[in-house]
Write a structure and sequence with these properties.
- This protein has seven helices and 15 strands.
- The chain is α+β, with helices and mostly antiparallel strands.
- Bound molecules: N-(5'-phosphopyridoxyl)-D-alanine.
Length: 286
C-alpha cells in the first residue's frame, strides 16, 4: 500500500485522504480511472492514457478537475513521494458527493484520488499463465474505463478460485477480452484481436502491441473470433499495463502452444522490452 496518496490537488499521507460516504464513486461506481506503468520512475505511454482519460470523461460528462499537465505533475510528485522505480500509478475521478439521486446532480466538485503500486505484475512472462473462460455479463459500454467493474470482478474471482491468473470473457460464442486485459490469438503467424468497439476496453498495451507488430512485420487482424478459434489458436496472450504481453499457456483444460510461450508472443515481448529499455535509458538521463 502506498504511503502517500494523491488527494484532489495534494500529495498527503494515506490516512489524510477522506472521501464522503455519499460520494457517487462509492455509491454508483460513477467515475473513471487510469492505471499507468512506471519504468525507472517515469510514466510510460502517458499521452495515450491521458487521451483515453479525456475520452472516458467526455463519454460520461464528467468534468476533469485539473489540466492534463497539472495532473501529470501531481502524478510525478506521487511517484517521487512513494519512491516508485518500477510499478503502477492508479488514479480515479468520481463525479463527487451529493444526496443520492440517480441523475447527475448540479455543480458538485469531482473527487480525484491516486495511489501507487511498487511492482507491475505477479506473473512471469517466461512461463506464461493459465486462464479460464467466463461469460461476459458486463454492460454494453466496456469501451469507457469506468469504476463500475463488478462484471470484471466476478469473472476475475472465478479465475482466482480456480487458481489461474485471468478469466477470458466471451459473449456467447465471441471472445471479447480478459477481466482486466485484452486478448490476442496467433494463427498462422497472424495476430487476431477483437476490434476496438463498445464490447472491449481499447487497452493502451493493445494499441502498443498493434503498433509494434506493424513495425516488426507481423500482420494484425482486428476482428471478432470465436471461443473455438481461441482454443485452436497456435498461441495466445493477454495484454495490459502490468503484464505487457503475457503468454497464455492453458485455457481451462486446453493447453495452448504446447504449454509454453510461443515464438510470435516472444517476438512481441522482445519488441516491447526494446522500447521499455530505450524509455528507461531516456528516463535515467533526464
Ligand atoms: N486494466 N480490458 C480491461 C477490461 C481492463 O481492465 C484493462 C486494464 C485492459 C488493458 O488496458 P491497458 O493496456 O490500458 O492496461 C483491457 C487495468 C490494468 C486495471 O483495471 O487495473
Amino acid at each position: 500500500m502506498s504511503q502517500f496518496i494523491l488527494y484532489q490537488d495534494q500529495i498527503v499521507p494515506r490516512d489524510q485522504g477522506k472521501v464522503d460516504i455519499e460520494d457517487r464513486g462509492y455509491q454508483f461506481g460513477d467515475g473513471i480511472y487510469e492505471a499507468i506503468a512506471v519504468y525507472s520512475g517515469e510514466l510510460f505511454l502517458l499521452d495515450l492514457h491521458m487521451k483515453r482519460l479525456q475520452r472516458s470523461a467526455r463519454e460520461l460528462s464528467i468534468q476533469l478537475p485539473y489540466s492534463i499537465d497539472h495532473l501529470t505533475d501531481n502524478l510525478n510528485k506521487l511517484i517521487k513521494a512513494n519512491a516508485i522505480d518500477d510499478g503502477v500509478v492508479y488514479f480515479q475521478i468520481t463525479r463527487g458527493a451529493a444526496p443520492r439521486v440517480h441523475y447527475f446532480p448540479d455543480k458538485i466538485p469531482t473527487v480525484l484520488t491516486g495511489s501507487t503500486e511498487d511492482h507491475l505484475t505477479e506473473n512471469d512472462r517466461t512461463k506464461g499463465i493459465r486462464t479460464t473462460l467466463a461469460e461476459d455479463i458486463r454492460w454494453l459500454r466496456c469501451d469507457i474505463k469506468t469504476l463500475n467493474l463488478l462484471g470484471n470482478v466476478l469473472a476475475n474471482q472465478k479465475a482466482h478460485e480456480l487458481g489461474v491468473a485471468e478469466a477470458i470473457l466471451h459473449r456467447g460464442d465471441t471472445v471479447t477480452e480478459g477481466s482486466s486485459s485484452n486478448v490476442f490469438i496467433v494463427k498462422d503467424g497472424k495476430l487476431i484481436t477483437h476490434p476496438a468497439d463498445h464490447f472491449i476496453l481499447n487497452g493502451i498495451t493493445r494499441q502498443f502491441v498493434i503498433r509494434l507488430a506493424g513495425e516488426i512485420g507481423i500482420p494484425v487482424d482486428e476482428r471478432t473470433y470465436s471461443v473455438d478459434e481461441l482454443l485452436a489458436s497456435d498461441e495466445a496472450f493477454i495484454s495490459s499495463t502490468g503484464n505487457q504481453a503475457m503468454p497464455i499457456i492453458a485455457i481451462d483444460q486446453t493447453e495452448i502452444s504446447g504449454g509454453k510461450p510461443g515464438p510470435v508472443t516472444r517476438q512481441i515481448n522482445a519488441a516491447i522490452s526494446e522500447k521499455v529499455k530505450a524509455f528507461r535509458k531516456a528516463a535515467v538521463s533526464r
